[in-house]
Amino acid sequence: MNFSYRLGWLFFRAMFATYFRWRVYNPERVPQTGGVILAANHASYLDPPLVGSGLKRPINYLARESLFRFPIMGTVLHSWNAVPVDRDGGGARGLKNILDRLFDGGGIILFPEGTRSSDGKLQPARSGIGLTVIKSNAPVVPVRTFGTFEAYGRNHKFPRPYRVAVKYGQPMLFEKLRAEAKVCDKARLKEIYQEIADEIMAAIAKLEPKAD
Fold it and tell me: 9, 26, 103, 149: least CB-packed within 10 angstroms?
């Protein structure tokens, strides 16, 4: 961790430990080195720092490309390993930036649902994460956050002191689907993208707020 990242990491860990009385389950399941995709549910702006703060390795975060245009903010985002993407988090340029981080051995947080939940419940997965999985060779660790919607959902103007938790699942490799994707036609490839996204979302749904 560089100095700026570590400072932010320590701040968020302290905040989650005191204000939100957090719980962290099974962080040892996340590889300590090498590229890894952390696929998490998304109910709040608290989710990215919560997922990253539970780990002792630096993680890459997605941030809107427009935010990097502001000098001070851009410098901070770069120091916090933020990955510039367009508003929807997709596009060829954004995908390339994500894959570059993964092939460089970095970990990155992605949200299969694509956007924050409006009611705190899990939403259907979009196929975009399936494309990223196929284009990379990184394992996927399903992650589920709990309590973040109640603490700071769409209807809250300020975070509430509600207990939150984060749980990391077992890594998923998708070896068979990755092999099939190399030889199948375009129609089947699109199906594979969605199949992977659905499998990841199902793995997230199975995670419970307790240690295994």
Answer: 103
